[in-house]
Amino acid sequence: MTDDKDVLRDVWFGRIPTCFTLYQDEITEREAEPYYLLLPRVSYLTLVTDKVKKHFQKVMRQEDISEIWFEYEGTPLKWHYPIGLLFDLLASSSALPWNITVHFKSFPEKDLLHCPSKDAVEAHFMSCVKEADALKHKSQVINEMQKKDHKQLWMGLQNVKALSLIAYVYLSQWKKSNKISQRFFSSSNRENIFNAFEWDLSGEDFRLRTTTERPFIQKLFRPMTADGQLHTLGDLLKEVCPSAIAP
Description:
five-stranded mixed β-sheet, Autophagy protein 5, alpha+beta
């Protein structure tokens, strides 16, 4: 069985090779060369694309530059979705590098939220962390963390080289929770994981992202049947999104 630390490291340090290309209708003073980056899956586009913005602005006039936004094959990319989620939803079956188109005008007001500053990204990120912790651990983890730990999480997302801070903080905090971590981190006790999180009482609140007009499905789903049999991911999909299961 793979150690949980290895899984956590793979999640936080996953990268997606990406090619950014300026939209063909953007006005430039000379040809704009593509720009390549390894994007961290756990971060957000607006946090890791400052170099992309500067690269293309060098060949543009200031009056032709407005708010930057990105799209993939005609689909605007939501800045408040993690990069890995965007890739998995839209491009997981495509060849690498992931080809993203960069725009500086004609902002799609109906499809995207404006991102006025990195403060908006920070507020969104911390809200997601608190929501996940409330559903998963009844807010035990986030309540035990100090303000400086919250700041380390945010700093890690902003700095690709500092992403190790995220894994460090999460690992150190999870291990402090006796009720959850002693069972969760022990491979020999995986059969008790549902008891550790009290699934049998409240069920698991999950969120299923989609590419349809309904952006996500969220509801409670009991991980066990009435006679004690474990449900699978397939069982969950059959109930909430049967079209996702091939006949």
